[in-house]
Amino acid sequence: MSTSFHCTLITPEARLLDEEVTYVNLPMWDGQMGFMPGRGAIVGKLGMGELRLTFFKGGKRSYYVEEGFVQMVEDKMTVLATRAMRTETLSESEAQAELNEALARKDATGDDMDRVNRDRERARAKLTLARQFKASGGAI
Predict the structure, then answer these.
(1) In which band, very low, low, confident or very high, does the pLDDT at 137 lie, cut at 50, 70 and 90?
(2) At residue 92, what are phi and psi to the nearest 5 degrees?
(3) How many C-alpha atoms does 26 have within 13 Å on its Cβ side?
């Protein structure tokens, strides 16, 4: 049995990751899901939140990811995300400002309200990750 698998993280703008990993934990639409070598094939809908990776050669990394899909086939995982950024690049003050702006929009209805709720969810997720990263002293 293999001790690692290949993980690729792709956004519309760039390929952000192309590495051998031993563990991946990512947000699915219905909750967190962990992946280890030997995992059966799966295609799933990606949610919004933290993607955590443990690398085969050592070390860890965390990304904020937003919507898309994940596919695991044999020893290859592909994560297609609408947006993704390394957790350490998230700014607590920018995320708080984004949340304040989204919370200030109270007169939305219908589809606009759905968009406002997604903006609030996105800002809260970024703020949480920025605070966790800061509190950990940069450790993942």
Answers:
(1) confident
(2) -60, -40
(3) 32
Q: Over the stretch 65-82, which tens digit does the pLDDT of each residue have?
A: 999 999 999 999 999 999
Among all chains, which residue has been given the structure tokens 């966790």?
132
Q: How many residues would you count in the chain?
A: 140
How far is 83 from 30, CA to CA, in rounded Å? 18
Q: Give, for 119, the enclosing helix (H) or strand (E).
A: helix 110-135
CA distances from residue 64 to 27, 61, 67, 106 in whole angstroms, order as listed: 10, 11, 10, 26
| Integer Cα distance of 113 and 32 in angstroms | 26
Structure confidence at residue 116 (pLDDT): 86
Q: pTM higher than 0.90, yes or no?
A: no
Q: What is the model's pLDDT at position 90? A: 92
Vertex 10 angle, CA 7 and 12, to 5°: 175
Q: What's 108's DSSP letter?
A: -
- Distance, in Å, from the CA atom of 3 to the CA atom of 56, rounded to the nearest integer, reads 8
pLDDT over 70 at 140, yes or no = no
